[in-house]
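Internal tracking record. Fields below are filled automatically when a chain is submitted to the structure queue. Please do not edit lines marked as system-generated. If the sequence contains nonstandard residues, flag them in the REMARKS field before resubmitting.
Queue: standard
Priority: normal
Entity type: single polypeptide chain
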Amino acid sequence: MVIFLTICAVGFTILLVSLLLGEIADHGGELLHDIGGDHDALETSGPSFFSLRMMASFVTGFGGAGAIGRHLDLSYFASSAVGLGGGMAIAGLVYVVVSFVYKQQASSTVVVSQLVGKIAKVSITIPAGGVGQVTLPAKGSTMTVMARAQDGAEIEYGSVVVVKEVVGDQITVARQP
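SYSTEM-GENERATED OUTPUT FOLLOWS
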């Protein structure tokens, strides 16, 4: 029983340290983080089964359930099977809770292509055939973007315009009718 309690204590200690330190190295504790060079391939819409939190939850559940099995005078093999089930149950429960919290997160990232059709105000005059700047609301804040006039004409400071197109890191605007 001491073996299972030690396994449980190690898993719980990792969970506790993770909680207190806000995840190891502030990367979400993903053990696969350093394996691949392509970070985008590892990004998911939820927690990873291979995160430190999930594995520590499994180890905690395995040790705790295995200790209960030994307390009930089950063999080490049977206690390990009980531990496996307990570890999967605890890790599954933690996964459900963490997934719920993960889905509650909001992003303030503005995708420039989503600006088409938005109303903006010219903050630096757009000269004829040239580039100026517009300011527009986006995701609860104000964003400034380099802009060209759709018809190539000058658009004065303070004019209200509509975003017509996104070209690279610039937008094309037209006077609001």
